[in-house]
C-alpha cells in the first residue's frame, strides 16, 4: 500500500509540469489547446532519441523544452496570424506532430533501458528521488509565479480575462497568446521527457489523453485548494496532480477494477470534480434562500401580532 502511494506521489510530481502547462492555456489564457496530447510525446521522443544516442540527459530535457516551445508557437501563430479557430489550430497541430514525432523517433518506440537518465543516480533512494522531483517542480512553479507578476505576465493574464480591454490599452494580444501557448507546451514537453526517462521508454501513444489528465489535475486542485491568487492556483495544480494520482492508485486497488479501466476512472474523477462543487454551491444557495424566507415569514408574523 505504501509503495503504491509513493509511486502515485512520484507520478503526480512528474505530471505536475504538464498540469501547470494545461493551467496556463485553459485557465490563464482561456485557450482550448489540444496540442499538448502531441507535444507531450514530442518531449519524450526528443529526449529518448538524444539519450539513446549518447547525449546528455539534461541537454536532452532542455532540447525537449525547446521543441515544445516551437510546437506551441506554431499553434499560437495558426490561431493569431492565420485566424484559425483556437480549438481547430490545436487539433491540426496535434495531427501534424504525430508525423513529426514518428520522424524524430524513426520507429514506434525507443527503449532507454541500461542508459543513463536524469534519475539514474537517485533511483535507489525513494526519499531523495521524491525530494529532487519536488524541488524541480517547486522551482518551476516559483519561476512561473515570478513571470506572471511581470508586465508581460500581467498582460498574458489580462489577455485571458478580457482581450478587448487589454488591446484598448495598447498591448499586443497576439504576442501574449503565442508566448502563453508556447510556454505551456514547453512545460508539457519537459514533463514528457521526464516521464520517458522515468519509465525507460518513449512511445508514440504516450501522449494520448494527456489533456484529460491535465484538466483533471487542474480541476481537482482548484476544487480542493482554491484559486484566490496565482501563487495559490499554481500550488493547487501541483497538489491536484498528486491527489489525482493517489485517487487513481486507490481506485485500481479495488478488486473489480484493473488498468484497462484507467480512462473510465479518469472520466469519473473529472465529472465528480466538476459536479460536486456545483452541487455544493446550489445547496448552499438554497439553504440561504430558505433561511431568508423563514426570517421574512417570522418578521411578517411578529408585525401582524403587534397590529
From TrEMBL:
One of its GO terms (cellular component) is plasma membrane. It is found in: Cell membrane. InterPro entries: ABC_transp_permease (IPR001851). The keyword Membrane applies. The chain crosses the membrane at residues 12-29, 58-79, 86-106, 126-144, 178-196, 208-227, 234-252, 264-283. It comes from the Bacteria. This is ABC transporter permease. It is a multi-pass membrane protein. PANTHER family: ABC TRANSPORTER PERMEASE PROTEIN YPHD-RELATED-RELATED (PTHR32196), BRANCHED-CHAIN AMINO ACID TRANSPORT SYSTEM, PERMEASE PROTEIN (PTHR32196:SF69). It comes from Paenibacillus montanisoli. Keywords: Cell membrane, Membrane, Transmembrane, Transmembrane helix. GO terms for molecular function: transmembrane transporter activity.
Amino acid at each position: 500500500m505504501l509503495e503504491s502511494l509513493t509511486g502515485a506521489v512520484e507520478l503526480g510530481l512528474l505530471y505536475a509540469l504538464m498540469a501547470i502547462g494545461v493551467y496556463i492555456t485553459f485557465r490563464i489564457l482561456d485557450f482550448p489547446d489540444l496540442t499538448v496530447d502531441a507535444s507531450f510525446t514530442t518531449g519524450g521522443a526528443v529526449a529518448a532519441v538524444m539519450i539513446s544516442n549518447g547525449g546528455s540527459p539534461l541537454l536532452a530535457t532542455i532540447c525537449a523544452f525547446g521543441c515544445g516551445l516551437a510546437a506551441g508557437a506554431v499553434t499560437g501563430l495558426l490561431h493569431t496570424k492565420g485566424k484559425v479557430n483556437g480549438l481547430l489550430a490545436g487539433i491540426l497541430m496535434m495531427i501534424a506532430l504525430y508525423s513529426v514525432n514518428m520522424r524524430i523517433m524513426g520507429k514506434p518506440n525507443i527503449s532507454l533501458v541500461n542508459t543513463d537518465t536524469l534519475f539514474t543516480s537517485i533511483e535507489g533512494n525513494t526519499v531523495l528521488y521524491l525530494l529532487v522531483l519536488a524541488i524541480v517542480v517547486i522551482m518551476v512553479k516559483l519561476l512561473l509565479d515570478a513571470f506572471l507578476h511581470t508586465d508581460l505576465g500581467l498582460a498574458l493574464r489580462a489577455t485571458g480575462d478580457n482581450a478587448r480591454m487589454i488591446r484598448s490599452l495598447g498591448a499586443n494580444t497576439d504576442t501574449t497568446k503565442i508566448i502563453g501557448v508556447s510556454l505551456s507546451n514547453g512545460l508539457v514537453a519537459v514533463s514528457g521527457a521526464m516521464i520517458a526517462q522515468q519509465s525507460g521508454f518513449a512511445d508514440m501513444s504516450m501522449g494520448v489523453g494527456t489533456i484529460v489528465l491535465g484538466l483533471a489535475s487542474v480541476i481537482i486542485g482548484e476544487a480542493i485548494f482554491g484559486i484566490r491568487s496565482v501563487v495559490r492556483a499554481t500550488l493547487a495544480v501541483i497538489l491536484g496532480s498528486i491527489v489525482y494520482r493517489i485517487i487513481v492508485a486507490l481506485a485500481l486497488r479495488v478488486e473489480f477494477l484493473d488498468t484497462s479501466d484507467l480512462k473510465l476512472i479518469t472520466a469519473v474523477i473529472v465529472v465528480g470534480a466538476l459536479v460536486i462543487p456545483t452541487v455544493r454551491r446550489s445547496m448552499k444557495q438554497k439553504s440561504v434562500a430558505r433561511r431568508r424566507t423563514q426570517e421574512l415569514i417570522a418578521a411578517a408574523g411578529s408585525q401582524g401580532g403587534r397590529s
